[in-house]
Amino acid sequence: MTTQHVLILGSGAAGAAAARTLATRDDVRVTMVTRTGETPYTRMLIKGIAFGPTPPEMIKLPLPQIEVIADTVLDVDTTAKRVQLTSGAQVSYDALIVATGSVPRSLPAGVLEGDDVGQGRVTALHSLEDAMGIRDLLTSLARPARVTIYGGGIIAAETASSLQADGHMVMLVSRSSVPGIGAFGAPVAERLAADHAAKVQTRFGRTLQHVDETESGVAITLDDDQRIVADLLLVALGTTPAAPSPWTNGIDVDDRLRAAADHVYAAGGVATHHDEALGVWRIDHWEDAAAQGTHAAQAALHDLDISDDPGTYLPRSPYMALVYGQMISGVGYTAGADAQVEAGEEFIVRHETDGTVVGVTGIDAVGTVYQWGQQLHGLQA
Question: Is 263 left (phi over 0), alpha (psi -120 to 50) or beta?
Fold first, then answer.
């Protein structure tokens, strides 16, 4: 029997999960391309490096026993089924799983003087390098820092909470009057907005019009001409897909994570999903990316005629976020779904599409929320 070659691009949650699914099989050969000079790590743990004592080596992501190429993808030729690397090497495949993740969404053009968001005083919290830069800056100040956070989702909320607990002076700026609706749904976001207002300074319904970064600080002008001086500006505006050429803005996939090109699959933050149940959607968090990676590997095996059909991919993965001492938890899909608060002692919110529960969020109700995982999308536990 001919051994099929599955090539995985990316070593994050989706790529590592795909590799683990395939590595135990003797009917496929698995190769992974990681970024040049990068050691795979668990991105969901970088907050412990930025704001805690976690050393970088503690978040290293173990990979299964597969072939790993440390190089950078230059281009994918989906017709020839071949990947060109910057070193000049070419790698052919029978099936390709693109798991290249995402990059942080930047400030609008013209807002920031000089260079774009990097690892200086204007930064995201998306990579290990970002986390190390934030830790170094906060340590070097030897005093409570003035930190402005621009955003309202999970990263913004957790960061505001962590910094406030450590005694730093935090201002949370959000374009929305109720930040975090896309991440948490309206009922949870409304409660968090009240918590933010009670714990840190807030400027909701505002945008950044101008940012000037210097060696000693950051001068920020809001759209109402208010000026803010900070030691650090953290940009937390979400992410955009990071797809290699020939894709330019992520990869559209069907309900089995198949791209338009033959035997190409995408999983995690790089994938934009199109299915009958939820329409067009994208989820970029660790557990869901890992579940997508596993499903993409199973779909690839099926399409190579060596395994069963895994069926439709539907998001059921959990997440948690600790914000001001409260545990925010969720499962499934919450963005764009109708939110209904359940009656009862616990604060539980059902997110429904056409009468079907597709996601659940809650505050200090982790057990109840997680029990919904296998019942979402009309499925039975």
Answer: left
